[in-house]
Design brief:
Layout: H1 4-36, H2 41-78, H3 86-99, H4 103-107, H5 110-125, H6 132-145, E1 160-163, E2 169-171, H7 172-184, E3 206-208, H8 210-221
Antiparallel strand pairs: 1-2, 1-3
Helix pairs in contact: 1-2, 1-5, 2-3, 2-5
């Protein structure tokens, strides 16, 4: 049995997932821009609705892909003489997965969680009732309190990423290079921040720190 056509279709679906992820990244940036430019709270809330719609599409697509992959693997293992109706079998698995879904699943979507986290931090920087002068002052205070120096390069960061596990921030290129080097040696990476006890930094634990990047960019312009 040739499954090349099915594998090709699944590959296309996974490409669709990458488009959804890109859409969520754009929606996050738009929401942060709205907060930064003092737009109505309703506009920001609408972006959150967009994020939840994306999360719903992502979950549905994930279920569909998983249902087909499980069906294909099952048929490959059993090797029946007559090929069953793959579409019906996959549809049954898909509906079973969909029946177990809940709204709380969407709140756990990684991109949505990142969106909420960054939005919360941005709102701390830009209070809706503050004047422009107060906000500039707030940013100045934040700058003095935040360490912009990467613990690895000892230089001002350009693309800061935050470790979701321990909360420390590094220059993206520098930490990824260490992770890659240690991976080749089959060794774990200890957090480069002095005094941190986290001993297994992974690339999947790193997320862009959009708020810090914006502060850094603002500082550079001045």
């Amino acid at each position: 049995i040739s499954f090349n056509a099915i594998d090709s279709a699944l590959s296309s679906l996974k490409n669709c997932q990458s488009y959804i992820n890109s859409g969520m990244d754009v929606a996050t940036q738009v929401a942060l821009d709205l907060v930064e430019s003092f737009n109505d709270e309703e506009d920001v809330n609408n972006m959150e609705k967009v994020m939840l719609e994306y999360a719903t599409m992502d979950r549905e697509l994930s279920h569909y892909i998983k249902a087909f992959e499980e069906t294909i693997n099952q048929v490959k293992q059993e090797k029946p003489e007559d090929l069953p109706d793959l579409e019906n079998l996959a549809q049954e698995k898909f509906l079973e997965m969909e029946s177990k879904k809940s709204d709380s699943d969407l709140q756990k979507n990684e991109k949505y969680m990142y969106f909420k986290d960054q939005l919360k931090e941005m709102k701390k920087q830009y209070h809706g009732n503050d004047t422009i002068e107060q906000i500039d002052e707030d940013i100045a205070v934040t700058r003095s309190q935040t360490n912009f120096i990467c613990p690895i390069t000892q230089m001002t960061m350009k693309k800061p990423v935050r470790n979701k596990v321990c909360g420390h921030i590094y220059e993206e290129e520098a930490i990824l290079e260490i992770i890659q080097t240690q991976k080749q040696k089959k060794k774990k990476v200890r957090c480069p921040k002095m005094g941190c006890s986290h001993v297994d930094v992974k690339g999947s634990d790193l997320v862009p720190d959009e708020i810090l990047k914006r502060v850094l960019d603002s500082q550079k312009k001045q």
